[in-house]
Structure formats: C-alpha cells, structure tokens
Amino acid sequence: MILLTAQNISKTYMERKVLDNVSFYLNEGDKVGIIGINGTGKSTLLRILAGAERPDSGEIIRTGGIRISYLPQIPEFDERGSILSQVLAHLPDDLKEAKEYEAKSILAKLGVTDYERDISTLSGGEKRRAGIAAALVQPSDVLLLDEPTNHIDNETAQLLEDLLMKYRGAIVMVTHDRYFLNKICGRIAEVDMGSLYVNEGNYSDYLAVKAQREIDEAAAERRNRSVYRRELEWISRGARARGTKSKDRIERFEALRDREIPVEAEKLKLQSVSSRLGKKTIEIEDISKSIDGKQLISGFSYVVSRDARIGIVGHNGAGKSTFLEMIMGETSPDSGRIVLGDTVNISYFSQECESMDPGQRVIDYIKETAERVQTPDGTVSAAQMLERFLFTPELQWNRIEKLSGGERKRLYLLKILMTAPNILLLDEPTNDLDIATLTILEDYLEDFRGAVIAVSHDRYFLDKMADEIFEFRDGQCIRYMGNYSDYAEKSAQNRTEPEKAAKKAVKKERVYTGKTKLRFSFKEQREYETIDDDIAQLEQSIADIEKEIAANSSDYVKLQELSDKKDSLEQQLSEKMERWVYLNDLAERIEKGETV
C-alpha cells in the first residue's frame, strides 16, 4: 500500500531552484536513502514530506490516518525540562506513561542513562541521541530522518543501525553514512540539479548501476568514434553519393560528425597539496590528561610516522578532540609532553567551522588562503580548486550567506587543505558533508604526502582512510592495527563484559575478485589483424559492380544479377563494419589493461 506520494513538487530558494517537478512515492515497509551534493534539496524534500514546509507547487498525498515521525538535522526541544520529559513531550498524555519504559530503553541503548538530567546541559551529540529517541518512541507508520548519524559516535551509530533494522514502518532518511545506506535501505533516491533519480537496491547496487551506466555511455561513444573514423576514411577517399545506400552512408557520416558528444563525467579529484616533512614529526611522550576529575588519557606515548593514517574512535566526551587540541598546543597535557619536528606544518579541521563573513564571495574566501597552489600535477588556481571541490563557476561568485550548512563545511575543509600542510588533524570531517565530497576527500587523503590523524564516527571513511585505530576508552588510549572493520572485530573479541561481548562485530568483507586481464581469443586476434583489408576488398568489389551496372544499363537480366550481388556484398560490408567496431573497441579496452 502506498503511504505517501509527492506529485510534481517544486521549490525555489533565493532564485535557486532546488526541486523541479519532482515526484516520489513511499510504500509500506520501504527503506529509502536520499543522497546528493549539499545544497541540492535533500533536507528540503524531507521537510516537505514531513509537512514542515510547503512546496511552491505540487502536492503531498498522505494515505488517511498515517502517522509520521520526523527528526530534523537540529532536534528541537523546549530547553526547560528533563531529557525523558522532552523525549515524551510530543506524545498524547494518555500514552506518556505507557511509553516511558520504551523511551528509557531506547535512550539507554543510545548511551543516555541520566534520564532526569536537564536537557539544556546536553552537548550536540547528546541532543541528537535524545532526538533519535523521541522520533523512535513516537507511534508512526513513516519515519523521516535527516542525517541521523551526525554528531554521534561509532558505537551509537551501530546501535541505531540495529534499531532501524527492526523498525517495522517505512523509513526515508537523508544520510552520508554509506554503511547505513547499504545495510538498511532498499531504494536510493539521488537529488541532482533539481531532479530526483530513484534506483532499486542498496548503496552498493546504486554504485553498480551508476558505474554500468557510465561504462555503457563510454562504450557507445567509443563505438561512435570508431565508426566515425572508418567513415571519415571512406569519405576522404573521394566517395560520391551514387545510389541510395551511398547517400545513406554519407548522411550517417554527417550525423556522426555533427553529433553532440556527451561530456564524460569528470573524475573529480582534488590534487594533494603539501609541504616537505622532515624525519621528525610528532613525538608524544607519556602524556596524561583529565578534565573535571575525569581521566581522558593516561601514560600514552607514540611517535607519528611521516605517512601515518590514524583513525580515532570512542564515546562522545572520551577525549578524542582534546587529544587533537593537545597536539595543536591549544591545551596542555597534565603530565608528559608533545614535541613537534622543525618542518611540521599542521592544518587542523575543527568540528566547529570558523566564522565566515556572510557577505563575502566564495572565491574571495578561498583566495585569502592562496590565489594559486602547487600540486604534483602543476599549479592550480583557487577557482580550479573550488571547481574540483564541487563549487561551480556560478556558485563561486555567490555570497557565503547563500550557501547551505553543508556547502559552508565543504568550503572550510577546502581552505584547510589548501594551506599546504604536511600533517592533517581532522576532527569529525565527515559531519554534514555529502557523499560526493567524502569521495573527493578520501581520494585526496590517499595521495596526501604526509600524516593524517582523524577523529571520525564514519565507519566507511575509517575503513578507507585508516591503517591504525586509536580507541579512547575508560581513560586509556588503546591502539589497534588495521582499519575500522579490523578494530571492531578485534575489540569485540577482547571485551569480556556481557553487554559488550553481545554487540555484533562489523565483519570486514574479503572479496576475491578472480579477475583476469581482458584479451583477444586466437580467432579474434587473427580477425583483428585482417579486417581492415577485408573491408577494403569489399568496398572495392562494390565499386567494381557499380561500374558494371553503369555499363549494362540496358541488359535487365544482367542488371538484376549485378544488383543482387551488390546487395549481398553490402550486407557483408555492414556485418564487417559491426565486427570492426567491436574489435577496435575491444582493442582499446585491452590497451587500457581492463579486466574481466
């Protein structure tokens, strides 16, 4: 049964059309993930579905009596009252008592146990967890979640994943958490340039479909280029439009020549910008730190290698950000010391974006850091760097006040990366970023010539970025070799407490691809070597027959015989041309080293 339908929805902000005649439906039990670049209208679509915002045109049709629960990016609470009272605040009075146990249970699973604590004292991450509990405890047929994993730690994200897997209603969520999209969602909706593109399946299925579409488009264009080259050779030899089929062939050539060549989706890649790093980097010597009587780290020593890739995990408030602040010198350890090498140039990405002048243009904000930067591929202008970070030329001249929150975060991140650091400290860099930006960042870090230390709750990001994990737990910093999946498996095995041992470990997929290099078969190789001569011979034979036809214009019996022979040769030529296109396309793929 269809629960919710959006018909021909349009919405414009500040002369920017974010949704253009978009339609969408939601069935019972559907689990839909909404993705897209920041600022494209994902949250707007969710607010419209929730009834929190009206579209400029179009309508939302709700099946009679359906109940919708909505979690916005910033949960809204009355700042007066306890956590529990605010989680239950939107329930009818006759339901509050019955739902109290369920609310406490969900809060406990999300790591909130002081139910009577004043909600005004909560951190952003704690408010997010309270908001999730409020959304889940409300009786609903449809759950709308806007970035539910933002500002929560890794364990809480996994617990939330389990809760949503068990939820019986329909879910629509905006998220950049690719593990969430893979495990929970059965449909992916991508918002792009005002339109909505829906793919059946989870995030991996979406990637496979998108990759295949790009391969098909590239193959079609290669075939067109191959045919065009062959036809160009034919035209260059002085072909004349004698006969219908020759005219058709010339028209085909002209159509190929004048076709609009599709722009291949650019492999958006931000070139690594860094400065030389000497042998001495960061030496951490027996440091300890406590805040308000809570021990965060005790007796920890470590030497950061020049190419370190360290991911930092732990509960909110465990000391992760404080650790980065000690490296930056913004706070000091209670004991021990941190020594930086003479050539160390650190760039620090804080959870809180620096203040920006809302009236400043995007391009001018970046030019404050550098007009041009040197990359391994040469000098790149500020405008080019912006474009590679998904800021179109038009968007670069917008004032910052017109940017969405995610776009501002992306702009701030680019500014940090452009300072030519050789050590990057990243505190929750994936919060509020879209998947396209995350992919660019991950590619950048892969090529970055220096050390990276990142605090993150994004398991997918840590799997791609890290080769060592620091876990902050119970006043200790525990080291694990490997990425996040390795850490999750090992840490689950190491814990003896019942509630921790019962927690599901994230299993790292080990896939044997079994791929071999693409190659010609023996028969194809022989055919590829001779097909040009075969085509030339057929073309010559057709030309000879055309001369015979002209010479026997009054002999109708001979004309019929020659015409039949010409038709047969032209059919053979057409088949040979198709084989020529196939073999040349295959040869190009073999030359590129493709596998099967």
From TrEMBL:
One Pfam assignment: ABC_tran_CTD
Which residue range or ranges hold the ABC transporter domain? 4-218, 282-499
- Source species, domain of life: Bacteria
For this UniProt record, the keywords arranged alphabetically read as follows: ATP-binding, Coiled coil, Nucleotide-binding
Coiled-coil regions listed in the entry? 528-579
Molecular functions (GO terms) = ATP binding; ATP hydrolysis activity; DNA binding
Whether Chaperone counts among this entry's keywords is no
Query: What InterPro entries would the database entry show?
Result: AAA+_ATPase, ABC_tran_C, ABC_tran_Xtn, ABC_transporter-like_ATP-bd, ABC_transporter-like_CS, ABCF_ATPase, P-loop_NTPase, Val-tRNA_synth_C_sf
Please give the name of this protein: Multidrug ABC transporter ATP-binding protein
> What is the scientific name of the source organism?
Ruminococcus flavefaciens 007c
